[in-house]
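ok so I'm stuck.
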Amino acid sequence: MIKNLLLILVVLFIISSCTDKKNPANSIVNESNNLFPNGNFEDDYYGWYVDYNTDAYFDISMIEPQEGIKCAKISLGSDGKRAEILRDNCAEEGTEMRYVFYVKIDSNYTDRNASQIIQQFHYKPDIFSGETWATIEELPPVVRTEYRYNKLNVIAYQDATGEEILGAFSISKNEWIKIEYQCYWSQQTDGFVKVSVNDQSLETSNDSNKFYLKTLRNSIGNLFQFGLDRDQDIKDSVAVYFDDFTVTMIEQ
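replied:
not stuck anymore, here's the structure
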């Protein structure tokens, strides 16, 4: 009896060892260190907050996802300005986090020389000082990723100095692009962001490739937002795709 039980356990161990642990359909959901499940949209938009706006469309595509069976497809019609999905509680003060996600610009995306944000870390109202979304001063996001003419621009905003383009990456439409941010969230200048696209780091003057800046406007933290937030003068119907979003905390 004991010998048979041991034999069964050995067989199960061999099977589990030989099984592909990167099953595309479950690679994100089963990743123990990932703080947010369903970053691969295999369960559609479950767990995401969808910010519905006029002429904004949130679909699930099964056509060539980055991995697995599904990916998110976010579109704007000719009258649309903003279509975003977001996660909260993933950019808190005093934490160092790594965010990895994949973006694909639709092959029919019309290029315009105007602001087209596809991802951003956006501040939140300071509820402890009485701010609300209705009363908070409208400012650019602390850090954002913009698309313009086959390039991704990484842009930071500081209250004291305004906007600064940290760098740019050349990309191709209709191809999955891996984007990685490593951020330390702080209201002081010890905050930093470190960025890479397709495993190519955005270089700085220091050896660590970290851009030091105030990464929080208050102690409430930032939102992580995917999607399209574009200049109101753009009237093209466009789409972008997102997949395989993971968030992990870096132990200090």
